[in-house]
Write a structure and sequence with these properties.
The complex is a heterodimer.
Chain A lengths: L12 E10 L2 E11 L4 E5 L6 H9 L6 E6 L2 E2 L10 E4 L11 H11 L4 H14 L15 H13 L5 E5 L7 H18 L2 E6 L2 H7 L2 E6 L2 E6 L1 H6 L4 H6 L4 E11 L2 E5 L5 E6 L10 E6 L5 E3 L8 E10 L3 E8 L3 E8 L13 E5 L5 E5 L4
Parallel strand pairs in A: 3-8, 3-9, 6-7, 7-8, 13-20
Antiparallel strand pairs in A: 1-2, 1-4, 4-5, 9-10, 11-12, 11-14, 12-13, 14-20, 15-19, 16-17, 16-19, 17-18
Helix pairs in contact in A: 2-3, 2-4
Chain B lengths: L1 H8 L3 H31 L7 H8 L1 H34 L2 H16 L2 H12 L4 H8 L13 H25 L3 H9 L4 H12 L1 H16 L3 H7 L6 H11 L3 H31 L5
Helix pairs in contact in B: 2-14, 3-14, 4-5, 4-8, 4-11, 5-8, 6-12, 8-11, 8-12, 9-10, 11-14, 13-14
Chain lengths: ~375, ~290
């Protein structure tokens, strides 16, 4: 941004105890969320968790049954979508098929009755920023998916809105282009200083792009935190399972020593880990034990740290690491991710007997979800 | 694998033609032969002559009828567009039983005989008809108004009869407009009217044009409704052709009028067709 258009500060967004029902279905059940100025927040969750409804309510396309939406401390519920001054990128871009790229991008400025000269220079500038120079007279149908995505972004920010909403904007792109666009969109957001609320069901995308991620499940926010917090300190079994990979076993909490607990599996084996929820001590409550594959250690020797012993039943090469499945005495299987370099020593092979272990602090125990 | 199954799925060329033969014979016998005969008769009576066409354009009465037909058809086409667009829009947006109800309201008149609907208008508009009785009963008029046998009556009745032919093509186009386009426009700052003017209307132009063409072409050759509610003072070209041929059998002159009607219709269709394909070129590709 080099011209006289002042770089606006991103808006603060507050979603306050939002409730939205569709008939008998409660899509959003009393959700609250604060987004700081200039922050990139991802709403992450499976389909039907209410994340899109939250976004549509902020945009003004849905009206909540209870709760409030505040931009910079002021309620916007009484304003129609057209007067909230929010930029929005839709899942399928929603580019106007009968208008050229330049006319699409100019649309928000034309609606705001900006002077013609200003519109022209501003559109040219934004086309430049999103690297679409020379394509202004094309129709959207003549562009590739990635280019259409850039037009949608340019159209959503051309009028310098303090808030940009994006509804799964990269879902239609192939994997490689999607990863490029993630970096590109993130860079543009930093450049513009705009606040972004970004809806996605792709945890990799959320972790890669967002400053903070809000994980939603069944109309509620389970956890809000930085990608690292979410991955390393998930507060619930749902979050642990949804973000990243994990080994996950159901059992009963049978022992408790300070923060460390033990979950008994069928056959009497006890798996130890950090008790994340406030489970009642030794109450024999149903619990879920989880450990990330990269936290699982394997050794062909008997080891002091070993919790279990088993036989390797599958080895899958994944470039930087091997994914190694170990069957524990036919009772269950556990997956370990072993960095490729560590396999340089005593190589693992199918059928090897191995010791399996982890540091108790690296595994987690949660109350079993009510299924 | 694909080669034999493709052959099985496709009828041989001979079989296809054989199956089409009855229709082709019927079509040739009752459509192509009479129409060509009629067209020839307008210029060969019995040898080549242009006098029928000269007669058609030299008599002020006939010119007036041709112009009136074109004028009424334009008014009717525009009238159905103005009245039909909101209905088609509502129909495209409605769901469940509401959509079914609107659909019934549009289709049931279409399935009802034009003759019945035209007679119904004579009952409504007559000197002692429902409207005049109602107005005088309320004390709004002293003498019955002259409603029937006016150009206004022809226009109103024709708009009513032809409305479905406007609504259905409009509905077909409006239904396929993605909702997120209008949402996007709203979110980017457009008012309801601006969304209509800049997004909905331009994207529904193919429907608008096909509706206009369909209604205009049907209107230009309309016979029953103008004959019943318009009377002889508000004659349209189809009535003129009918009276030339049926009452005073001047086949050659009737054929000349028919030829002019056909050429006008085809010419307008060609123009509209170009307009539609232009509209497609201008971006209504998805």
């Amino acid at each position: 941004m080099t011209t006289g258009v002042p770089a606006k500060r991103g808006a603060r967004v507050s979603v306050d105890s939002l409730v939205k029902r569709f008939g008998s279905l409660t899509a959003v059940a009393g959700t609250s969320l604060d987004v700081a100025s200039g922050e990139f927040l991802a709403l992450l969750g499976p389909s039907g968790c209410g994340k899109t409804t939250v976004l549509m309510t902020i945009a003004g396309f849905e009206h909540p049954d209870a709760g409030d939406i505040l931009l910079d401390g002021r309620s916007v519920l009484s304003l129609p979508a057209s007067q909230r001054n929010i930029g929005m990128v839709f899942q399928r871009y929603a580019l106007f098929p009968h208008m050229t790229v330049a006319d699409n991008i100019a649309f928000p400025l034309v609606m705001r009755r900006r002077p013609r000269a200003e519109i022209r220079s501003r559109v040219a500038e934004v086309i430049d920023v999103v690297r679409l120079s020379g394509l202004g007279e094309r129709l959207p149908s003549q562009l590739s998916g990635g280019q259409q995505q850039r037009v949608a972004f340019a159209r959503a920010v051309v009028h310098s809105p303090p808030l940009l909403l994006m509804d799964e904007p990269l879902a239609a792109l192939d994997k490689k282009l999607r990863e490029e666009m993630q970096i590109e969109l993130k860079g543009l957001q930093r450049l513009l200083g705009i606040t972004v609320v970004f809806v996605t069901h792709d945890q990799q995308e959320a972790l890669a792009m967002a400053d903070r991620v809000a994980v939603m499940n069944a109309g509620r926010i389970e956890q809000v935190g930085s990608p690292r917090e979410l991955y390393e300190k998930p507060v619930s079994a749902f979050v642990a399972n949804f973000v990243g990979e994990s080994n996950r076993f159901r059992g009963r909490l049978v022992e408790r020593a300070g923060p460390i607990g033990g979950v008994a599996m069928k056959g009497g084996r006890v798996l130890r880990g950090l008790v994340a929820d406030d489970l009642a001590v030794a109450a024999n409550v149903p619990a879920i034990f989880m450990v990330r594959p990269e936290m699982v250690r394997l050794s062909t020797q008997p080891e002091a740290w070993a919790e279990l012993a088993g036989v390797i039943t599958d080895l899958t090469y994944a470039g930087s690491s091997w994914s190694c499945t170990v069957a524990i005495a036919d009772a269950f299987s556990i997956v370990a991710r072993v960095p490729t370099e560590r396999l340089g020593g005593p190589a693992l092979a199918l059928g090897d007997r191995v010791s399996v272990g982890w540091r108790s602090e690296d595994a987690r125990i949660y109350a079993a979800e009510v299924a | 694998m694909s080669a034999p199954s493709r052959n099985e799925g496709r009828l041989g060329a001979w079989t296809s033609w054989l199956l089409l033969t009855p229709l082709l014979v019927l079509f040739a016998a009752v459509f192509v032969v009479p129409v060509v005969g009629m067209l020839l008769q307008s210029a060969f009576d019995p040898t080549f002559t242009t006098r029928h066409f000269e007669q058609a354009v030299s008599r002020p009465l006939y010119v007036r009828i041709i112009l009136r037909t074109l004028q009424i058809s334009v008014v009717v086409a525009v009238g159905t567009l103005v009245l039909g667009y909101p209905v088609a829009w509502l129909m495209a947006r409605a769901k469940g039983w509401q959509a079914a109800l609107i659909g019934c309201c549009v289709l049931i008149p279409l399935w009802t005989s034009v003759l019945v609907r035209s007679y119904a208008w004579t009952v409504l508009l007559a000197r002692n008809g429902l409207i005049n009785n109602g107005l005088s009963g309320l004390g709004l008029t002293d003498a019955p108004l002259r409603l029937l046998y006016t150009e206004g009556a022809v226009i109103v009745a024709m708009i009513h009869v032809l409305l479905p032919f406007m609504i259905l093509p409009l509905y077909a186009v409006l239904r396929t407009l993605p909702v997120d386009l209008t949402q996007a426009a709203r979110g980017l700052g457009a008012s309801g009217f601006q969304v209509f003017r800049r997004i909905t209307l331009p994207l529904s132009m193919p429907g608008v044009i096909s509706g206009l063409v369909m209604v205009f072409i049907l209107a230009i050759g309309f016979y029953v409704t103008p004959a019943l509610v318009g009377g002889s003072q508000n004659m349209m070209i189809a009535q003129l052709i009918a009276s030339e041929i049926a009452e005073a059998p001047t086949w050659g002159f009737g054929a000349a009028l028919s030829t002019m009607l056909l050429v006008t219709t085809l010419g307008l269709m060609a123009i509209f067709h170009r307009a539609i394909s232009f509209e497609r070129l201008a971006g209504h590709r998805s």
